[in-house]
Amino acid sequence: xxxxxxxxxxxxxxxxxxxxxxxxxxxHNAEFAIQFNLDKMDKIYSHKKVLKNDMWKKxxxxxxxxxxxxxxxxxxxxxxxxxxxxxxCSYFSVHAHVANEKMFYEFLARQSKNxxxxxxxxxxxxxxxxxxxxxxxxxxxxxxxFIFADLNRQYRxxxxxxxxxxxxxEIRDYEYEYQQRDAIEGLMAIERTLGLLKNNPKPFSKxxxxxxxxxxxxxxxxxxxxxxxxxxxxxxxxxxxxxxxFSTFEGYQAADFSMDKGAxxxxxxxxxxxxxxDDILEITxxxxxKKDFLKYIPKDRMAIYFMSINxxxxxxxxxxxxxxxxxxxxxxxxxxxxxxxxxxTLIDEDAISKLVSGDVLMSFNGIESRITEYKSSRYNxxxxxxxxxxxxxxxxxxxxxxxxxxxxxxxEKIQNIMKRENLLSEKDGYLMIPPxxxxxxxxxxxxxxERMILSTDFDMLxxxxxxxxxxxxxxxxxxxxxxxxxxxxxxxxxAEESNRYSEYTFYDFMRSTFDRLVIMSNPxxxxxxxxxxxxxxxxxxxxxxxxxxxxxNLYVKNELKRNENRYQFYSDRINKLIKKYEALxxxxxxxxxxxxxxxxxxxxxxxxxxxxxxxxKEIIWGLEEIIDGKDYEPEYYHHDGDHNGHREEIKxx
Length: 653
What we know:
Distance between the termini: 35 Å
Number of strands: 22
Largest sheet: 20 strands, antiparallel
Helix content: 40-55%
Radius of gyration: 32 Å
Structural class: alpha+beta
């Protein structure tokens, strides 16, 4: 907990002017890199104000930190987080700039009773700070790197004997295998990080991924060719079976976030392997949304998904994806290529493009309720299966899907087959898939020369025979992809539907804070890119301020209250046990018991016990053992009335 708390404080304290220096500490092939530009965030909501919140105030008290400057961190330079996956080990690193190394070390020393500092570690010129088997930081030359590692299980099993031999001096005192693993992980993380600090010939700042966003706003996230590396490092057979499927989307992407008043803005850029990139651009370029599709959905819908693609190009991409996805896993490449050619003969790209236009709209309008009748089955008195008509009030999702058609007659033939086989019925000018046990609302179908409509908006379908549509929508979007979700409306309905709803839940935060989410593609960009906006209800508020206040409110209302309840529960139990001990006859009491009772009374008065009531459990166990007359010599916190406690073993004199 101390380690996580420390990282939170450093994250809060560190502010950026220039992120390139710390990018030199991140390897070229790292899968993730995240930058928190707190210099800009601090102008929105200063860290001085944040530290006055109850949650951060308590963290500062826990760490005996009176001010951020007392940490020794350089408050005007970058903070970076990165993940680097290798065949042997997964590395997680946090990098920051340090203004005063002595002050920073003293700050760390206050957080641990077993802090160790090794200057000029192995002649590197850097200082190694250790606080545990695998928890360490490397300090020097104006930077600090917190490094954590997770050794691959298979690699550890296959190489443990070798690793034990190489690192014998460092791990000879560790007795158990899991302790040896921790020691090896720590040493591997140290050596890798030292190598990057001394000489990183290919830093992350030189990658094509970084170039997607070399100028950034408050928060920026880079993902660099993730899937192939995950397939190598994740020790999971099921995941490895699908690794080639994921590699179809191999590439890199970046997202940059800015926080204006009333909205969280996002810009996202993607780049795939060249052949995949060219195929995807061919799918999307020159396409725009068919805005007359909007007449089939209401203005107050909860969510809409709108897309326009080139079906011929999409089909060609799917065929190539099959080769990437399954080649070498199940069948040989030669057989797979033959199968692709067979599919091409049966369904070629021209046939696909002649069937559908590539325009699709999907909307979710909300939850509706209606009386439905559907056919089910049951056993009669003679234990024979018979059909039965059930009638009940059904809640169902009201949705509409509109698909652009290029070959109406083809789909009309399918429709006629379904009508002749009683799979469809006529109703109010449209066709109806009758309600059944799996789809109790049923679903309506309407087709014309240009489009097919699948919907549970039955009023809309009934009005189509009279040429009535919803009012026009003013959607000023020149794009081929568009998503619009009404968050407040959606979470309001969830709150109404949920019996476990509480005013302090995530639902309440979302529905009282955010209005809508909009994402759309940027078709004029020469690469794949999109923009998004998460709009707030209060247009004068900032999402960062709101988010920080929300975290604090949840902490105060949930965590603090929960600890109060726990403390009350455990303290009541301890007081009952103390009374039970004091009621024992003199010959059943002992000096050990008297000391435990005395320590229990002191613990109940301490701030630490009230903040972390779980520590009272061991005192309860000790009292129970003493009362039962068992030989109990526990280690537990002895409190002297202030915030800090120390370990003390109670023994009879």
